[in-house]
Design a protein that fits this description.
The chain has 160 residues and is mainly β. The protein is 14% helix and 38% strand. It has a domain of 100 residues: Jelly Rolls (Sandwich), CATH 2.60.120.10.
Length: 160
């Protein structure tokens, strides 16, 4: 077994558990921590069968995505780096022409501006997208949909 404290080939230290889990702050806390229960977030549905539940940090974002059978996230590009992690079910993922079926435990790394898309056939898929920096267009769309839902709730009932 290799000891993580051994020197790397270039002579630099690989580090150790004590330095990895240090309690010595080398800066000011960026803000308070918080807990989020994903099940308490109402999904935002941008396309039929495609539900998004974004959780925003200060420099990163996770988006819990549910694909119903037959749902599709069309091929697209964006400036944010994205890591896709399948939690349950399966979907087909197109990573710049490399098309694969992804299942629980599979991960895809999508660098900025690389074309990608995904779709389900007969099965569902639950996956997590990690964006760095946070995906601003997703946040704007979620806010707009939430505002529309709030307006609809506050509107007086229409008379038939």
């Amino acid at each position: 077994m290799t000891d993580v404290t051994q020197q790397a080939q270039g002579g630099e230290s690989l580090g150790d558990a004590a330095s990895h889990f240090s309690t010595e702050a080398h800066g000011e806390p960026a803000g308070p921590g918080r807990y989020v229960n994903v099940d308490s977030i109402s999904p935002v549905e941008f396309l039929p069968g495609l539900g998004f539940r974004p959780v925003l940090g200060q420099r990163a974002m996770t988006n819990f995505v549910s694909f119903e059978p037959g749902a599709e996230a069309p091929r697209h590009v964006h400036e944010e780096e994205q890591i896709v992690i399948v939690l349950d079910g399966e979907f087909t993922f197109d990573l710049d022409g490399d098309v694969r079926v992804m299942r629980k435990g599979d991960v895809a790394i999508v660098p900025a501006w690389v074309p990608h898309g995904a779709w389900t056939t007969e099965s569902h898929c639950l996956e997590v997208d990690v964006f760095c920096p946070p995906r601003q267009s997703l946040l704007k769309l979620a806010a707009a949909q939430a505002a529309q839902a709030e307006e609809a709730e506050q509107a007086p009932p229409s008379e038939a």
